[in-house]
Amino acid sequence: MDSNLHSPERRLIELRMEHADLDALIDRTSEQSPTDELMMRRLKKRRLALRDEIARLELALDPKEPA
Q: What is the pLDDT of residue 49?
């Protein structure tokens, strides 16, 4: 069971959830009048890093070419 907690599939789910949470946070924050630009840049940079990590993990779990 412990190995399931650290499986790549579980990590992928966690990354997708974090990415979705960041999307929602960025949307809510951008609706506020005085937007903290530095915080928005940091949130968007983190979201982009998550997207890249998700893409790498998806490729590792399901390679398009046979190994």
A: 98
